[in-house]
Design goal:
Layout (H helix, E strand, L loop, with lengths): L5 E2 L10 H11 L10 H20 L7 E4 L2 H8 L3 E4 L2 E11 L4 H4 L8 E3 L9 H9 L7 E5 L13 H10 L3 E5 L11 H4 L3 E5 L10 E5 L4 E3 L19 H15 L2 H22 L4 E2 L10 E5 L5 H10 L2 E2 L15 H5 L9 E4 L6 H24 L1
Parallel strand pairs: 1-13, 4-5, 4-6, 6-7, 7-8
Antiparallel strand pairs: 2-9, 3-4, 3-10, 8-9, 11-12, 12-14
Helix pairs in contact: 1-8, 2-8, 5-6, 9-12
Bound molecules: pyridoxal-5'-phosphate (PLP).
InterPro entries: Aminotrans_V_dom (IPR000192), Cysteine_dSase (IPR016454), PyrdxlP-dep_Trfase (IPR015424), PyrdxlP-dep_Trfase_major (IPR015421), PyrdxlP-dep_Trfase_small (IPR015422)
Cofactor: pyridoxal 5'-phosphate
Keywords: Iron, Iron-sulfur, Metal-binding, Pyridoxal phosphate, Transferase
Length: about 375
């Protein structure tokens, strides 16, 4: 990153941690293939299993229940399938229900031909009454229902009532998949406490390298048919020679994420509160989404009336600050946010997202507030001129 740049887009990707970088470099220097039985192979295997333990600890599961993938998108495509196995016997799932605010990796529905959308309220929280009604209308003869609800929304940071959803899903005999990508490393996450059957997580949102993630399961009895078939790596669930460097970097980031989480979160939440108070002082009409409800501590999603998010993002960028216009997708073009639409907001205007992390400083927050005040002031001037 260039000098004088301020990076406030941690939900898009978090800066690589020095520990993760060191682990990646160690992994790159390893000679062995983890499937080989010679000493080099066994050394590589040992390091992958050590990383698996660190990733398992991040979400409180048995390491045997962590399948490494190329990222959360692959993990989502792996798990969202009607094609399951119980041992060797095939099991068909009947339908997929996804919340209206899922990340596209889940929202697209994976290998299901169609999916039903569970609505969210104006507060950005999935409507559990609607979930209950939809599952009550599900035809069990078609197969078990699968439900996907994320834990923390990537655009707003709003936390979803996943544990309550799990009770409803299980009462209807369904399977619950939770995208915990934006929650791990930001709040404590336990598959057991959430009542989830599967979690998907990603390395690069917690300071690990990009291109590695995991599908985490509660047990090993009912498992999805593999997405990537071949030599039978990852106990047959995900073939392909493991990216040792990526996995070791992920393990190092996971170990960091659980260490001193509460203390780190207190500091991050204090910075977030400072930011929001400063923004409010500069522009009393700023709308902070999800402010009243539960959110991850690192995310502020806001609408400045009269300012198009895209224009705001460019203005911040020109002032040296990287943040996101919520709905920026991988191709770099900005579309209307399906999350804002689902919340009943004016998606044409869009929203800006500031997301921070452990390395963010008070000085950076104050600089962001100053730029915000400048942009908000300009908006008033152009309003007056109009
Ligand atoms: N789910 C959420 C909530 C995300 O924010 C992201 C990343 O943008 C993904 C899934 C996809 O993760 P990955 O980049 O590892 O494929």
């Amino acid at each position: 990153m260039g000098t004088n740049r301020i990076y406030l887009d941690w939900n898009a990707t978090a800066p690589l941690l020095s520990q993760a970088r060191a682990a990646v470099l160690d992994g790159l220097d390893l000679q062995g293939n983890a499937s080989s039985v010679h000493r080099e192979g066994r050394a590589a295997r040992g390091l992958i299993e050590a990383a698996r333990r660190d990733v398992a600890a991040l979400v409180g599961v048995d390491p045997a229940h962590v399948i490494f993938t190329s990222g959360a998108t692959e993990a989502a495509n792996h798990i969202l399938t009607p094609d399951f196995r119980m041992g060797r016997s095939p099991v068909r799932l009947g339908a997929l229900y996804v919340s209206a605010i899922e990340h596209p990796a889940v929202h697209e529905g994976g290998r299901f031909a169609a999916r039903h959308e569970i609505p969210v309220g104006g507060d950005g929280i999935v409507r559990l009454d609607a979930l209950d009604e939809m599952l009550a209308a599900h035809d069990p003869a078609s197969g078990l229902p699968m439900v996907a609800i994320m834990l923390a929304n990537s655009e707003t940071g709003i936390l979803q009532p996943v544990a309550d959803a799990a009770k409803i899903v299980h009462a209807h005999g369904g399977i619950l998949v939770v995208d915990a990508v934006q929650a791990v490393g930001r709040i404590p996450v336990s598959l057991e406490a959430l009542g989830a059957d599967f979690l998907i997580i990603s390395s690069h949102k917690i300071g690990g390298p990009k291109g590695v993630g995991a599908l985490v399961s509660r047990g090993e009895t009912l498992m999805p048919a593999p997405l990537v078939r071949g030599g039978g790596h990852e106990k047959g669930h995900r073939s392909g020679t493991e990216s040792i460097a990526g996995i070791m970097g992920f393990g190092a980031a996971a170990a960091f994420a659980v260490r001193d989480l509460a203390e780190r979160n207190r500091m991050i939440a204090a910075l977030r509160d400072r930011l929001e108070a400063g923004m409010r002082q500069a522009a009393g009409d700023v709308v902070i989404l999800g402010e009243a409800g539960p959110r991850v501590p690192n995310t502020t999603c806001f609408v400045l009336p009269g300012l198009k998010a895209e224009t705001g993002q460019i203005a911040f960028d020109l002032e040296g600050i990287a943040l996101s216009a919520g709905s920026a997708c991988s191709s770099g073009k900005v579309g209307e946010s399906h999350v804002l639409k689902a919340m009943g907001l004016d998606a044409r205007l869009g929203a800006l997202r500031i997301s921070i992390g452990a390395a963010t400083t008070e000085a950076e927050i104050d600089a962001a507030i100053a730029v915000f005040a400048k942009i908000a002031g300009r908006r008033r001037l152009s309003d007056a001129a109009a």
